[in-house]
Each structure stands twice: as C-alpha cells, then as structure tokens.
Amino acid sequence: MAVSESYLTFVLEQLGGVRDILTKCMFGGVGIYSGDRFFAVMDNDTLFFKVDDALAGQYRKRGMPPFAPIPGKPPMMGYYQVPPSVLEDADALARWAAQSLQVTAKSPVRKRRAGAGKPSRVGVRKRRPAGAKRSPRSTRSK
C-alpha cells in the first residue's frame, strides 16, 4: 500500500475543484477529506471514492473494482476505483467527488474520541526516575 509523491500531487491537482481538501497517511495509503468528510482513499497509486449501493452501480458499469487493500480478503464495497477517464478530467472528477461527498453527508460525522491520534499505550514501559534502582523482583539473572 504505497502512494508515490507524483501520483499524490497529480490527484490533488485534479481535485482542485473540491473545497477544503486534506490528506492523511493511513496504513501506507492516503485518506482524502473535504473538510471533515472522508470521501476517498489512495492505495498503490490508485484512487477510490466512497459509494453507496446506488452509486456503486455507476462504477461497476464502467468495470471498476471495489477497494481491496488486503490480497485474498474480501474487498471493501464502500469504495470503488475511479475510472481513469474521470481521473484525467478535472471537471468530471469534481462531479464524481461531489457524488461521494453526498454519500458521506448521509452518515453523521464521527467526532474524535478523547485521546484519538495519540500513540497507543500498549507495549509502552514506564521509565524509572534517574537514580532509582530496580526492585529485587525485576532484576535479571546473569
């Protein structure tokens, strides 16, 4: 799951007609937001837009596959690959992005929970204060 800098730059230029574009790195790919609405993902230099059941037909009609980030696992049917002809036409891409944003508008925006975006505490060891000695239970034998 990688996105080249040149592909990212190209897609963002093509999405110039969409307001408030933000990108976030996600699991090796890139998530695309318009304001607080997550509507697209890029993976392996391929752009996928969020769809609902009705909109997915438009993508399938053009032979576009759903987003399948993990080989051998079922695809994520909520995102479909944007047709290359649409990606090449900035005006058409803006229209298709607007349709995906309408899909996201049907569901409530998730508020960030407290602590979201902070590193997980799993596997983090507490540090002893300087000069503190280990307790007898935690000393290692040689």
Spell out the blueprint of helices and strands:
Layout (H helix, E strand, L loop, with lengths): L4 H10 L6 E6 L2 E6 L2 E7 L2 E5 L2 H9 L4 E2 L8 E6 L2 H5 L1 H16 L37
Antiparallel strand pairs: 1-2, 2-3, 3-4, 4-6, 5-6
Q: Report Rg.
A: 21 Å
Q: What are the segments in which pLDDT stays under 50 over at least 5 consecutive residues?
A: 115-129, 135-142
Report the major sheet: 6 strands, antiparallel
Helix content: 25-40%
Residue fraction in strands? 15-25%
What strand order characterises the main sheet?
1-2-3-4-6-5
- Tell how many strands the DSSP assignment holds: 6
Just name the CATH architecture: 2-Layer Sandwich
The assigned structural class equals alpha+beta
In round numbers, the mean pLDDT is 81
Q: Look at the structure and give the CATH class.
A: Alpha Beta
Count of separate DSSP helical elements: 4
Q: Give the SSE order as H and E letters.
A: HEEEEHEEHH
